Amino acid sequence: MKRLILVLCLMAAPLWAVQPDEMLDDPALEARARDISSGLRCLVCRNESIDDSHAELARDLRLLVRERLVAGDSNEETVDFIVERYGEYVLLKPRAGGANILLWLAGPLMLGAGLILGGIYLRRRSTTPETDVAQLSEAEEDRLREILKE
């Protein structure tokens, strides 16, 4: 039973990143803040949301999100404000527009190009006429038999 409680506590560890003094009194604003902060990257921890991170910068970003929401900003305005300050790297899921469209399309385009080039190679290979392979002379065949016997 103690082990089960310990495992459950360890599984809930990321929930402890948001400190009680950071939480807003209004449950609706707090839910919006959690929704926004789950999509923002901790710049210290890299691939961890600021909601899950224990870093000081993540705490500052969580407080900034809550300040913007209390000031009356919408979710989009809050995210835009943070992206303007820290760049698009702060988003865990980058936007698919502008210069990022090249990154979003690069993978599928390269896969398509590889499939097309592979198909062209296989088609050319199958239609290439077979070249005559020179047969060994009697002397060469005798020499080969001697080598193989040794």
From TrEMBL:
Keywords: Heme, Iron, Membrane, Metal-binding, Signal, Transmembrane, Transmembrane helix. GO terms for cellular component: plasma membrane. InterPro entries: C-type_cytochrome_biogenesis, CcmH/CycL/Ccl2/NrfF_N, CcmH/CycL/NrfF/Ccl2_sf. Residues 1-17 form the signal peptide. It comes from the Bacteria. Residues 6-148 form the CcmH/CycL/Ccl2/NrfF N-terminal domain. PANTHER family: CYTOCHROME C-TYPE BIOGENESIS PROTEIN CCMH (PTHR47870), CYTOCHROME C-TYPE BIOGENESIS PROTEIN CYCH (PTHR47870:SF4). This is Cytochrome c-type biogenesis protein. It comes from Roseovarius gaetbuli. The gene is ccmH.
